Amino acid sequence: MTNVLSLINVSKSYKTGKPNQITVLDNINLQVKKGEVVGLIAPSGAGKSTLLHIAGLLDLPNGGEVMIDGVDYTNLPDFKRTQVRRQDIGFVYQFHHLLPEFTAVENLILPQMANGVNYFKAERSALELLSSIGLSSRATHRPAELSGGEQQRVAFCRAMVNSPKLLLADEPTGNLDPETAERVLSILMNLVNETGMSAVIATHNHELAKKMDCQLSLRQGKLTRL
Ligand code: ADP
Ligand code: MG
Prior knowledge:
The chain is of the alpha/beta class. The protein has 7 helices and 10 strands. The chain is globular, with a radius of gyration of 18 Å. It starts with a strand and ends with a strand. The structure holds adenosine-5'-diphosphate and magnesium ion (MG). Adenosine-5'-diphosphate (ADP) binds next to β2 and α1.
């Protein structure tokens, strides 16, 4: 079966003033199967965001290949990379990045309409998603009227509303207190498992990562299975 995400011999280094450069990803390999949830555990500065940006086609590696669902996007033109990013990849960050002027349900309707879904169908699936994470009663609230945990739950829904094949989450509970983080992560895991999508979830919390199918550590540019 084709892997949903495949990183093959991917390297990334940054120039930090001549002649210095730091190698953040050193020839790494990663395969994520359909429905698999991978926890990426590493301390701050280890390269988690760099890896997720490259996997999500937001940045290019210096070497190696990035394949989504069997297609190598490394050398394809920007419009092709943007197209697959919009259709097949969902992102969640530490901060929710919801549109402040719009309600929770509108924040879930807009990305669907941008993908060609009509308003009424978009509204229906937005409300269904909110209901599935217990937020029906907050549908008409703006982000500022939601708690941190609720904002993050809406951000998960937004990342999933167009049914991507791959979810990339960069410390998605990093701004929450430990108890809320655990609850919110369970909700995310349920959503991912129900839809059968694949995910890579970066965290520096080992306890949270234990809920995932496998755990990888990223240190000194190398990826190892824990
Ligand atoms: P993490 O997400 O694990 O905290 P990052 O991927 O953000 O780590 O960063 C990994 C390393 O790469 C850090 O040392 C950081 O300073 C460096 N880095 C990240 N982005 C850049 C950049 N655009 N230019 C130079 N160095 C960078
Ligand atoms: Mg980071």
